[in-house]
């Protein structure tokens, strides 16, 4: 079992487009994020950000360079650039780090047609040209690259996440 710092948890606020790192249940650090363009929702293929209680199931990308590109949770070896963006204009860019979420509430965000983990919902980096504070993702929680690297280094696998 990983070493979990039980003093740290995350709260994602869809309405305010923020992610707050809580220490002993008190706000410690706050980041601007971008949640789903389609709003909040738990159903598979909805393109919505799932609500409720989650945990960080996996951390992916440790030690990778900032702006590293991931496809299907695997580093491609590419480093994001404007040239690469023009070459692949329709890619949903997942950059730098991934915190893969898993729901903890059966029937709400775990198992069946509402399973956060099987929906591949992450907290991840996105091109720094993408606006924060505006819902634009396909369901994930997007962050600026320096912010996701900072957050990634602070939280452990098993960290509690609530999305409201």
Automatic annotation (TrEMBL):
Pathway noted in the entry: Cell wall biogenesis; peptidoglycan biosynthesis
Active site: residue positions: 124 (proton donor/acceptor), 140 (nucleophile)
UniProt domain L,D-TPase catalytic: residue ranges: 8-164
Record's keyword terms, sorted: Cell shape, Cell wall biogenesis/degradation, Glycosyltransferase, Hydrolase, Peptidoglycan synthesis, Transferase
Superkingdom of the organism of origin: Bacteria
Pfam families tied to this protein: YkuD (PF03734)
PROSITE patterns in alphabetical order: LD_TPASE
Family classification: Belongs to the YkuD family.
Designated name of the protein: L,D-transpeptidase
Source organism (scientific name): Alkalimarinus alittae
